[in-house]
Amino acid sequence: MIIKAEGNKPTEAGTKTLLQHLVTTITDKFLPNYGLLMLWASLANAIPMTFWAIAFILANPSVYQTAMEQINTVLKNQDTERTSVMAADLQQLSYVKWCILETIRLRAPGAITRRVVRPLKIQNYIIPPGDLLMMSPFWAHRNPQYFPDPEEFKPERWEKADLVKNVFLEGFVAFGGGRNQCPGRWYALMEIHMFVSLILYKYEFTLLDPLPNPSSLHLVGTQQPDGPCRVQYRHR
């Protein structure tokens, strides 16, 4: 994978793939590790979260209708056989992005852990170096102070977020918080946004099973479905 990226030339427009940027900025010693990390990071959570986003949309008919109205408006001149979604298109597909962020809110990891590297004071407590701290996005995202009706799938709540400036809603910690958030969060959101928009545009779905519950066995990473989720589909 690394060798192939090194041999590929940039396009006529001068653009490079993410992997091509990687091979020109990381030293040879660390390239295999970073290449594998990028492959894992782009798939491990994005794919199951894409499933949940589509499942939530299909399980809520009014949401499905609103999302399709926006998708059909933005991509109406596209051929369903050869459809391309550009960054400018994604900017117009705001409701679909709200659906994705609401999905991430409800299916975020159960826990994020970090090791303390220096003495940390929290109120009257001192956390010594070496201890582990744990934050639970699952429970943080169910705090009614920040998310009224927290168990309800409400994409409209994200209308209040300033997503143009990449600002999430207060209390949203799926990617961490502060200055040390997940460095790949914008890539992951774009990846999911593009795939969900494309597959909903190309295929018409009917949900055959109720929306499955998340598995209680998955504490780290995107929660897995605790049961089947069958659909009937046809090409548009």
Automatic annotation (TrEMBL):
One GO MF term: heme binding
Binding site for heme: 182
Cofactor needs: heme
4Fe-4S listed as a keyword: no
Keywords assigned: Heme, Iron, Lipid metabolism, Membrane, Metal-binding, Steroid metabolism, Transmembrane, Transmembrane helix
InterPro entries listed in its UniProt record: CYP450_sterol_14alpha_dmase, Cyt_P450, Cyt_P450_E_grp-IV, Cyt_P450_sf
GO biological process per UniProt: bile acid biosynthetic process; cholesterol homeostasis
SUPFAM superfamilies: Cytochrome P450
Membrane-spanning ranges: 37-59
Coiled-coil portions: none
Family indicated by similarity: Belongs to the cytochrome P450 family.
Protein name listed in UniProt: 24-hydroxycholesterol 7-alpha-hydroxylase
